[in-house]
Prior knowledge:
heterodimer, A: alpha+beta, 3 helices, B: alpha+beta, T-fold, Calcium-binding protein (chain A), signal (chain A)
Amino acid sequence: xxxxxxxxxxxxxxxxxxxxxxxxxxxxxxxxxxxxxxxxxxxxxxxxxxxxxxxxxxxxxxxxxxxxxxxxxxxxxxxxxxxxxxxxxxxxxxxxxxxxxxxxxxxxxxxxxxxxxxxxxxxxxxxxxxxxxxxxxxxxxxxxxxxxxxxxxx
Amino acid sequence: xxxxxxxxxxxxxxxxxxxxxxxxxxxxxxxxxxxxxxxxxxxxxxxxxxxxxxxxxxxxxxxxxxxxxxxxxxxxxxxxxxxxxxxxxxxxxxxxxxxxxxxxxxxxxxxxxxxxxxxxxxxxxxxxxxxxxxxxxxxxxxxxxxxxxxxxxxxxxxxxxxxxxxxxxxxxxxxxxxxxxxxxxxxxxxxxxxxxxxxxxxxxxxxxxxxxxxxxxxxxxxxxxxxxxxxxxxxxxxxxxxxxxxxxxxxxxxxxxxxxxxxxxxxxxxxxxxxxxxxxxxxxxxxxxx
Lengths: 154, 290
C-alpha cells in the first residue's frame, strides 16, 4: 500500500470519523455508558515529509487511513478513504472494519448516524399528508392538564 | 399530485383520536366490528378501567389465561425487556400511577412512588400469565400499536384491504401512494424535523415526552430499571412492518442502545436527544432536515 503523504490531513479526517461514531455511541441509555471510544486516529499512510512543509497545498489523489476505537466488545476499526482534488476533498468514504458482531452492526448502521442540533422546517413549508409527534396526545390527558391549569388559576 | 380524498372515519377510542381512511366509506357492520374489537382490547388491557383483566391482575396473584391476540404483545414485551436490560417492562404500571398517571389522571405524584416489581414476579408462557403477587401491568409502550394491527386484521377479514389507520401517533399505511408524514419537532409543534415516507404496508409510531408531561421531569416513559422517567431522549419515530413492533421500539429507543435494537429487530428509526441532536438509521424512509 503506497500512498501519498498528507498525514495531518488524514489524521484529521480519521479523527472526524471517530467523533461521529463517538457521538452516536455515547448517546444511548445508561447501559452503554461504558462504550466511550477513546482512541486516537492512526493513519496507515506512509509519510513523504517533503510535501508537508507547504501545508496549504495537497497533492491530488486518493488517500486512506485507519482509525480505531475501544468499545465494550473490544477494539474496532474504521477505514477512511478520501479523494483530494485542488486542495479540496472531493470524495470521502467511511468503511467499517469491525469484526465482532455488535460493533460491525453498529458501524454499518451508524455510518450515516447522527447530526447536530436539528431545528427543522416550518410545517407550513413541508408538503405532508400527516403529522406524527407529541401534539397527538391522550384526550383524557389533555383534559386533565386543562383542569389542573384551571385549578391553578382559581 | 394531489392525493384523492379518501373517506375518513374519525372516532375516539381508548382515550385517543382515531382516523381510518379508506377509498370507499366503511360499511356500518365493519365499523361495528372495529369498535367491538377495540372494546375487547380495552376490557383486557386498560388499567384505567376497574373491570379490566389488568385491574383484576392488580388485585391478586394467580394464573391468567389470556386470549390469542395477547400473545404477540406480551412476547414482544419479553423480547424488549431482554434487549433493553429491563428498561422496557410492562411492570411499570403501579409506578406510573403513583407518579400521577393514574385512572383519574390525577397527575399528582405520591410522596414515595412504588418501585418497579422484579421481572420474576411474573412469568409469561402463552397462553398463561402467572403473577406471583398483585402487579399493575401497563402496556402503554406497545399496546396501542398492537391494537392498530388488530383493527387492521378486522378490516381485512371483512374484505377491506386498503386503508390507513391513524391512532394519534400510531400509523399503519395500506392505502394508495406512499404517505408523507411530518416528524413533529418535540419542542415546537409548528415545525417538522423531517419527513417519513411510508410505503404500502409500513407502520410508523411516534413518541415524545414533552407534551404528555405533567410536572418536573414527569412523563409517561419510565425506565423500568430506575422507576423514573427517562431524560436524554425527547422524541422517537420508528418505521416497521407492524404497528406493534414500531410502537414497542419507539418506546425502547428512549431507553436503549440503538445498535442493540437495530441488530435484534428489523426497523428504521429517528430519535432526538434533549439537546436537539438527532440520530437516525441510514435507511430511514424519508429525510431528516439537518
